[in-house]
Amino acid sequence: MKSILLLSANGEGSLFQRIFPFLLAIILIFIIPMLASSRGMTYGEFVRSLFGHLSKFRPRDPAEKMQDQQRRNQNRREPKVFNGHKNELIQLVSTLTVFARRNNLGLIYPGTIEYNGKTGNLVCILVTRHEAIGINCFGFGGAIRESEGLKDWKQHMNGQDGWIPNPLVLNKTQRDLARRALDHNGMMDVPFRVFAVFTNKNVVVNTTHTDEVFTTEELIRKLRSIVGSEGHDFDPQELSKRINTLIVKVKTKK
After folding, report:
1. DSSP letters spanning 87-102
2. Are residues 49 and 98 in the same domain?
């Protein structure tokens, strides 16, 4: 009985050994090529996909790749930015104070000139040996792009588009008011211009008016260039005292 069982087991083992190579040949020669063809893959790509590399080796349609890229772009969040804070304004005034002291210039703070019942809103006025320069500050962040003519400028921030007041228009308003006040008080010979300054550290300003609109760093470079090349027409300290008589202190709301 024992010998019969042993023969039976040996018979099954020899039968499997004889059939297995044919089964493997059928799988490799017929079944795998058919499966690979149905999935649009080569033989080698399909074999590699069986080992967990399907996403890496599967051929992808260009339109599918573009859709994936668009989804990634939509899901990619822009860095969160905000409009400016009062601290940035204070820092700018502090920087200008140091700049004026080192170059023996005058700095009038605030620069709120009053004339004929109207009060300007310049943050400060830098008085050099040749002219007076009003500093008109803007705290907007994001990407700022100029518009044509007198239109408001475009602002893109945190995925949204908006509008901000045109700095060039506001500069002209402040300049005209200061000009009339200076002329009325016997300072017709004092040149006066206004610079728009974006104090936000995260702002990018796209404008062709680079002689009138600046970031904080650009302003300091511009002032260094002006002071280094200008003549000596006035005493900055004496002129500052005269202009300061036109300043009115504006109470801020708490």
Report:
1. HHHHHHHHHHHHHHHH
2. no
Segments in 58-208 forming alpha helices (H): 62-75, 86-102, 167-184
Q: Are residues 68 and 97 in the same domain?
A: no
Enter the DSSP assignment of 238.
H
Has residue 62 been placed in a domain? Answer: yes
Backbone angles phi, psi at 38, to 5 degrees: -65, -25
Count: domains in the chain: 2
Q: Let me know whether 43 and 92 are in one domain.
A: no
> Looking at 91-166, which runs of residues are DSSP E strands?
106-108, 114-115, 118-119, 124-127, 132-138, 142-145, 153-157, 160-164
- Give the tens place of pLDDT for each residue, 126-165: 999 999 999 999 999 999 999 999 999 999 998 899 999 9
Which pTM value belongs to this model?
0.68
Classify residue 252: in a domain, yes or no. no
Residues 75-112: b if buried by 16+ CB within 10 A, e if exposed: eeeeeeeeebeeebbeebbeebeebbeeeebbbbbbbb
Strand 114-115 to 118-119 pairing? antiparallel
Give the range of the structural domain holding residue 193, as residue numbers without chain letter: 86-244
Distance CA 39, CA 33 (A): 10
